[in-house]
Amino acid sequence: MKKVKHGGNIYEIAEKLGIKMEEIIDFSANINPLGVPKRFKEALIKNIDSIENYPDPEYHQLIQAIAEKYHIPREYITVGNGATEVIFSMISSLKPKKSMLIAPTFGEYERALVRAGSNIQYYNLKEENDFAVEQDILKVIDESFDLVILCNPNNPTSQLIEKNIMVKILKHCRKNNVYLMLDEAFIDFVDEPKKETMLLYIKEYKNLFIIKALTKFYAIPGLRIGYGITSNCRLLKSMNDHKEPWTINSYAAMAGMVLKDQIYINKSREWIISERKAFFNELKKINKIKVYKPNGNYILFKLLEHKTDLKEALLKNKILIRSCSNYKNLDHSFYRIAIKDKKSNEIFIKALKEVLYEG
Ligand SMILES: Cc1ncc(COP(=O)(O)O)c(C=O)c1O
Where would I find the Aminotransferase class I/classII large domain in this sequence (predicted)? Predict the structure, then answer.
């Protein structure tokens, strides 16, 4: 099984360029530029000695924080070493014979399905419709499927699935005895997270499994902390029965406190709402690229004249972006960039214009 290349590999790039990691402006990983919430950082430092003990194998404190945040029973929650562990664990417990993936989407779903021996059918998102998931997906999903996986907003397209279509898909899946895994790892960045999330349907729909993570919004990818939510207690029990103990370390187990950090949450929301608009508007003015209107904290764009390897060209300015050439249904003319702080975004626009118009 092949490894998927992801964004964020600044180690490899720094070595290749012979520079320090800190010199790279990393637009390839979609992480909140506000950084680790200050109060959480202080708590980590204060509790440094907690690594002398094993973490609580039931992760009571963490699960309680998630339950309180979303007003859901603790019994609906499973936690993992990043969203990635939850994705693999759900799929290996469910053992779907036939699954549906949209294309393009996050690469680890496919790896987890291949590992579980699932037959995969792809629903290709159309470039001419800005990679939207459309109502015609309902015609493809039937009782021959065991699992459909959707990502909302989708990575790398940054497109949201229209709420009414999403609800129809969920209902249609239940009617056909199909599970729906819905990855909401980036939902906190969208304009109206409460309106877009499908959490309200969790209690009633036992075929729904929602994935979330603290990784992106709270800027802690190195800590590895994600969770799954479902009212399907049988599925959760099977996942928990198969899980290795202590995959979440003592520091990650403390991270539930960030969910209550309203000052950080408000500041992050202010940043994303203003920078997404500003960055998108500047990119739109560049006539050598087509930019897809973003909903998450990252932007997909297409190079219209493909003369340059843009990733290599920008690396000369120590700017790292994500080439989308290894995504199914995209090619080497597509790139994904994170929305960062104002100054970094301005540096990016300037460097991109230089490469495209002067290079
Ligand atoms: C859509 C999506 N889900 C899940 C993940 C994995 O998150 P984590 O780092 O918490 O495992 C990623 C990582 O890029 C992602 O893009």
Answer: 23-352
Q: How far apart are the first and last CA of the chain?
A: 39
- Summarize the confidence of residues 332-340 as an average pLDDT: 97
Quote the CA–CA distance of 86 and 182 in Å, as a whole number: 12
Tell me the domains of the chain and their CATH numbers. Answer: 10-30+262-358 (3.90.1150.10), 38-260 (3.40.640.10)
Lowest mean pLDDT among 18-22, 32-36, 341-345: 18-22
70 CA to centre of ligand 1 in angstroms: 20
Q: Which atom, in ligand 1's list, is nearest to the CA of 30?
A: 14
Percentage of the chain beyond pLDDT 90 is: 92
- Tokens 């993570």 locate to 213
Rounded Cα distance between 62 and 226, Å, is 11
Question: Six-digit token pair at 205?
Answer: 């729909």
- Compute CA distances 81 → 135, 228, 240, whole Å: 34, 11, 13
pLDDT of residue 358: 81
Q: Strand 25-26 and strand 319-320: pairing?
A: parallel
- Read off the pLDDT of residues 255-282 as tens digits, 9 standing for 90 and up: 999 999 999 999 999 999 999 999 999 9
